[in-house]
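User: I've been trying to design a sequence by hand for this structure and keep getting stuck. Would you show me what you'd pick, starting by listing the structure so we're on the same page?

Assistant: Good idea, let's start from the same input. This is the structure you sent:
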């Protein structure tokens, strides 16, 4: 799996882990424990890019850009180094990492998917084969 896919699946698992008594709670917990260390390592590498290429303030810390409405992420100022930073960021995000996801061989009914407000997250689990089947 690519790092970007791992981060996506990790975010989905975190969202679903907040729900009580899901039939796939064990699979979610197992996959969280598999994915979090990989994501943490990649995050450290991404912050190394920030330290390397971001414009520094008077204290030598990366300059943070003002937060834009609707943006939940911290943006840094890169000046003329932005292309290099983006290239290294994309290289890390596209890095393939072997991951043996825990798969729950359960049936999830169409009614459950239709009635669950977080069904969009369950479809991601289907995409990554964390859950195997959807019953009609």
């Amino acid at each position: 799996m690519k790092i970007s896919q791992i981060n996506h699946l990790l975010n989905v698992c975190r969202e679903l882990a907040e729900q009580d008594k899901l039939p796939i709670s064990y699979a979610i917990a197992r996959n969280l424990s598999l994915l979090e260390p990989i994501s943490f390592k990649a995050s450290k590498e991404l912050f190394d890019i920030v330290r390397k290429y971001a414009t520094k303030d008077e204290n030598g810390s990366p300059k943070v850009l003002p937060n834009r409405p609707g943006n939940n992420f911290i943006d840094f100022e890169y000046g003329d180094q932005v292309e290099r930073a983006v290239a290294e960021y994309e290289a890390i995000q596209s890095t393939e990492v072997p991951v043996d996801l825990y798969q729950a061989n359960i049936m999830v009914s169409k009614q459950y998917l239709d009635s669950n407000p977080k069904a969009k997250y369950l479809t991601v689990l289907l995409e990554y084969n964390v859950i195997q089947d959807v019953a009609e």
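That's my pick for every position. To get oriented when you compare it with your attempt: The longest strand covers residues 104-109. The chain is about 50% helix and 10% strand.
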